[in-house]
Amino acid sequence: MQQLQGMRLLIVEDEILLAGDLADYFEERGAVILGPASTIEAAQCHVSSANAAILDVNINGKMVFPIADRLLALGIPFVFFSSYDEDVIPTHLRHVDNVRKSGGRHALLETLFVARRRTQDEINGIDGDPSADIAGLLPELRLRARHYLDGRAAADRLVEQTLLAAIDLADRKPPDRDTLPWLCDLMDRTFRAVGHQLLD
Prior knowledge:
- This protein is of the alpha/beta class.
- The chain contains 7 helices and 7 strands; from the N terminus they run E-H-E-H-E-E-E-H-E-E-H-H-H-H.
- Strand 4 (58-59) and strand 5 form a beta hairpin.
- The longest helix is centred in the middle third of the chain and has 24 residues, at 104-127.
């Protein structure tokens, strides 16, 4: 049986019985449960403390995507657990695994392990060869850029401007900050500064 000993797992789910069932299931495998959060506001309080997260897509009539965006920016692995089809999920988040609720807890556990392994591989790349790391992060950066700008060419220009800013500010990057969240913050600032100039 796979163990999650000590992992701080955020569960965002508004169905009380299902939320409790998930919390029990993952606690039995060693996870420390944050929440379960039944509102977007409650979930926001736990994001920065989480090591991983399970997100229902619709939380009491509000879409969970602001939480997903924060997790993505912080490099925290997460999976969607919903009854929604992929077309409801914004384009920049469609690379995230979406486990159907009909798939059950075991499928959710397996998918969560894959998401955590994928994130760990990215972190290991960051700790290894920095040039390989940046190349590996490009798909993620391009997806994020498409969140800001619809056109592919414009989004690529935003990535390019972000990387140019990263070169200029490399000596100011906090040594304990992972590369992906740092670049995402740079992209946010770059878009606010010059986004209107990058449109097709």
